[in-house]
Amino acid sequence: MKRNLLVLIGLLVAVAALAFAVMDRTGVLAGLDLGFLTGGPRQNITLQSQLRDEATMQTQTQETLSPELMDLQEKNEKRLVSGCLAGKDCIPSIDSPKFVYAGKYAPVRNEEEVIGVFYNGEARAYPLKIMAYHEVVNDRIGGKEIAVTYCPLSGSGAVFEDGVQGGDSGTAAGGFGVSGMLLNNNLVLYDRKSGSLWSQMTGIALAGPKTGSVLKEIPSGVMPYAEWIERYPKTKILSTSTGFKRDYLSYPYGDYRENPVVYYGLEHEDNRLPPKTAVFGIVAYDKAKAYTAAELMKALPEEGEFEDTIGDHKIMVRYQKGFFSVSDADTKKEMPVRQSFWFAWAAFYPQTEVFMAEMK
Fold it and tell me: How many structural domains does the chain have?
């Protein structure tokens, strides 16, 4: 009897381990920090400390927000879904990043994609194969604190400066982390100063003392490493020496990028494009517009740029070898560009225009 019980327990453990591995391979458990299994660091956040943090944030929020913003926060909180069983910091951010220079020891191949940032005279590249395991890198570039973010579920990368639009520098002092929550299958960040929750796709605070504030976004791009290094040969590249034991050679979400499945619910669906189509999106003059590589290639002249419009405003669009950028046609100021899967862009910007070459 005892032996049979031990055999049954052994079988249950084996089945559970197999299910755990399958779910992790397909991305269901990609939000869990498995550092305690792999030997990597893991932040120990108890339920008691989480409740204390939430109570503190609620008190701060009540003291700082107007009734209108309190109402907005309440509505936003109902929109959020849990994407991590372990909650806040379930996916560990990189807070002390190390870098190497381009060359034969670079931890990325030419065809692999990176988030490229050129800011205040410095160029850096953050390989997506590392970002997929951490989603947030808190860094300092050109004398400024920044947060480099990437959401594998929505395929979106964005870089934010410490502080919000209109001043208030130091809003996010201490950096950003993964909140464990999702909105439209997209990463929701939290800042470690106020505890406020921020949408990675829009840069807008959804809840907490900073509700309604907008982060300062820095122009960046997602592109093959070869194209980035061609433009910035002296770039620094995020190293795999992160302090965590992760297999950065493997993609933790299986075939997610290729299949049409979206793990979590969307507030709006749009069938103008297949859901996992990669789009370049811009938001300017209260309008949103999305571009696909296929339509850009149809429209491009030999010089690699053309004039387009968003709303009633003229913009200059450039696309060369995977490098997409947009600037105001009059001021020449570069605009932040967001690359993401179509389903996520359309969910956040239901009224978005979609660029078509024949309509240019």
Answer: 3
pTM metric for this prediction: 0.82
Are residues 99 and 187 both part of a single domain? yes
Select from 40, 55, 23 the least CA-distant residue to 89: 40
176 within some domain:
yes
For 19, half-sphere exposure in the C-beta direction (CA atoms, 13 angstrom radius) is 6
Digit-coded pLDDT (tens) for 88-139: 999 999 999 999 998 877 889 989 999 999 998 999 999 999 999 999 999 9
Residue 56: partners with Cβ closer than 8 Å, 6 or more residues away: 195
d(CA 103, CA 45): 39
Asked if 52 and 25 sit in the same domain, the reply is no
For 308, the domain range is 278-359
DSSP states along 93-137:
-BSS--EEESSTT-SS-TTSEEEEEEETTEEEEEEHHHHHHHSEE
The residue assigned the tokens 């939430």 is 54
State which H helix or E strand residue 344 sits in. helix 342-348
